[in-house]
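User: Could you write out the 3D structure of this protein bound to adenosine monophosphate? I've included everything you need below.
Assistant: Certainly. Input first, then the structure.
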Amino acid sequence: MNGSEEQDPANVRPHPFNVVLVGLPGAGKGTQAAQFARRHRVPKISTGDILRDAVARGTPLGREVAATLEAGGLVPDDVIVRVVQERLEHPDTARGFVLDGFPRTVPQAAALDALLGGRAVVVIFLEISPDVILQRLVTRRTCESCGQADTGAHTSEYCASCGGGFVKRADDHIDVIRRRLDAYVENTQPLVDWYSRRPAFRTVDANQPLADVARAFDAAVLECLGPGEIP
Ligand code: AMP
């Protein structure tokens, strides 16, 4: 192996808990990331949550991105990379993190590599049939405290994981959902192709029941890391 290969994040052994989740909007990234974070005591970093919170509080960032979120487009790479950089500087990421909704483009992924300074990530692609996505997002409600999603027949007003209340996301409406799916095909599909060449990339079938997805998710991370690294 020559020097340049050693520097390539594709060839670096991943840190135990630096995990990235990619997949279509509605594939279950938020729910799986929240559960993974609880199981392994690492922070879930959801760029969508950070941006929605900034919009709700009317911060300068929120004012900058509000129209883009409402339209279902992607906020510019430099803006979102700055947000993630600030979040990763927080000491709670020392043992690792699970990223939900970032990166979404190849330039964002390259920026993440640079931010991590050679510490590679385990990349899990939650693969789901696009046919089920529309129905899932149209009926989705999201827990305002932990991000857990509730789709289909709503049996409770409160989140089974944390007891928080459910809200309907402003961008979970049919026209906006279509634009978010278009943004995925245009930008995120190439990202999945780009990551798929790495050794620490795994695809998990997200059409299964939640608990099976969670088991497959843990198994995929473990397979990338090797035995004994997940407590
Ligand atoms: P999400 O909750 O991940 O579906 O994100 C909600 C919205 O936030 C997206 O439709 C985008 O407008 C914006 N957003 C979140 N993450 C990113 C990102 N990595 N790059 C660009 N825009 C993002």
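Confidence is low (pLDDT under 50) at residues 1-6.
User: Perfect, thank you.
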